[in-house]
Amino acid sequence: MASAIIPERFRQEYRGELKNIFAQRVNLFCYIALSAFSIEVIVAWLFFRRLLGTKDMPGILGGAFLSLLLLTTGKFAKKLTAQKIRGFFFSVIIISISILAAAAHPDVITNLGITLVLIAFFVSALLLPWNMLETGMLGAYTLIIFTGVYSMSNIRINYVNYVHTDIFGINVTLLIVAAFICMVVKRNEGVMSQKDFVLKKEIEEKSKIMVEELELANRIHSGLMPKSIKTDLVDVAVDYRPMLYMGGDYAKFHFLDKNRLLFMIADMTGHGVSAALLVNRIHTEIEGLVRENLMPGEILKKLDNFIKADFGKIGIFLSAFCGVIDFSDKKLVYSNYGHPPQILFQKADKKIVLMESQTFLMGIGMETSDIYQVKINFERGDRIFLFTDGLIEAKNKAGDEFGYDRFERFVREKGPLDVAGFNEELLASVKKYQEGAQADDIFLLSIQIK
Length: 450
Description:
- The protein is an alpha+beta fold.
- The protein has 2 domains: 2-206, no CATH class; 225-449, Phosphatase 2c, domain 1 (4-Layer Sandwich), CATH 3.60.40.
- It has helices at residues 2-5, 8-47, 56-73, 80-103, 106-111, 115-126, 132-152, 165-224, 272-291, 296-311, 389-392, 403-413, 419-434, and strands at residues 156-157, 160-161, 229-230, 234-241, 249-257, 260-268, 318-326, 331-337, 342-346, 351-355, 374-377, 383-387, 442-449.
- The chain has a 6-stranded antiparallel β-sheet. It has a 5-stranded antiparallel β-sheet with strand order 5-6-7-8-11, with helices on one face. The chain has a two-stranded antiparallel ribbon with strand order 1-2.
- The two termini are 75 Å apart.
């Protein structure tokens, strides 16, 4: 049966799984049997001491001893065949004890008949993963022992037959029917078990391939993200915390020349692989726009047209912030398309300047030729904080957001830290505030102007 359903590459593992099931269930049955026999002996000793030493006790003590023996040999059975032998011996013990217990008492034979034997057989046959042939062998053993023992029990006491021929015939018929039912059940159960095992292994194989592909995609996606740098003019610390394997946040910075630094941060709608794929496409477009040596407003305007043309029909939107620092004349030019207000921290007076959005999200479809752009001054020592909304919108259990107030207090309190230390402490603070799973991608760039 297994060879017809289980592929060759899975057979050894399937046998190992069957071995573990046999080992676990036989050990469990041995513990139960030992507990039952022990309780029976204790109760008999305390309340029915006169029964000790009678014809019931040898069977009880023998069953307990054999159960203990099977339990101790379990750790030495390394193969499926050895575990099946343990299971078969346990089944033989239980079935034999039930037959002998019934045969030892004429009133049990008369009133209960096959009941004890059927219970023992069903437990042995159905609760262990036998195949159809093995179940049939167990049924044959039960039928042979039952017939032999009960035939010997058919004695006459005071000219009364305690095992009548018609009752005996009915009992044998019930046992044959029970064995047949169990064989059919085991056949169907075996087929379903093997199919489920194959399906599980195939899903595991496909899942492994998907994980490997995701890890490769994540490495490619991570390669698009900028790395922290330190130069004579500026220190930039970059931290990216996607909610899933990868996400829809994007950032870039690039020296246009020795005195000008372009930086950008964007947030694609959505999360996960689909958003990351769109980010990869947008990255290619941004690389081309940067090489054109455009100002921030012009870059975002062209990017907006690209989003509307390529992604407008599928409802993809993008918030973006782009700026250029001119170190020579201490000017910052920025453009903001629907992105959360980014922060300029003026070190001298600890003032926070919010660089607000000037228009809608990219891809909304607003047709206009306007260029949105603002120019502001900065001084040496000032800092710029770029981030996506996953940072300020992180919520605690009460549903309250981390928000700008906490962020601004943190900026004022932790201003003396270097940018890498600032990012580390801020993200730790957000994580602690959130008290749970991250609900959105978080991108954070801290720029210190020297």
